[in-house]
Amino acid sequence: MNIFRLAADVLHVVSIFLLLLKIKTSHSCAGISLKTQFLYMIVFSTRYLDLFFTKPWHSALTFYNTIMKILFLSSSAYTIYLIRNRYKHTYDKVHDTFRIHYLIAGSAVLALVFHIRLTPFEIIWAFSVFLEAVAIMPQLLLLQETGQVENITSHYIFCLGSYRALYICNWIWRYFMEHRRNQWLAWACGTVQTLLYADFFYYYILSQRQGKKLRLPP
User: Is 37 a residue whose pLDDT tops 80?
Assistant: First the structure.
């Protein structure tokens, strides 16, 4: 494991902490897209099927990966529970309108097209990679629809986007240091996912420099 992946994982965990902190302290899920959380749950559920076959004590790295996978799965399920049950009266269903079935269907088609000759598990893994690349879109659309973004929500999304950007550095490191040169799918999808955050990053950094609350243009 290299420093870029470790830093990326730390940012991912921080983003989860910030999301849950925002919901629990404000007793509200306003500004949080249930559809994005649902997509992430699908991503983690399909990508981490190896949890049923991997021995976590096989090595220190395997144990670390197992802990992280369980954390991502459980936190996604808990977030969905909070939005759909405990704080459902604060959920902004009116603006969370992205039609995610197009994203799911498109990811499934791409996984089949590019991995039709591989095993079912590899196709499912590819589906999770394609879907993760676009899973943030409902959340970004919701923020643009409402315009103003709470500070802690903006920090959550910034950490989530930064984690993906650091994974690009991780892939570059592995390309040169570990000679992992057949990761075109991860590179392409990771780059697309990071580019989706570009507009948000610009306004986030601008708001932080000006000391103002983040506002996104319609």
Answer: yes
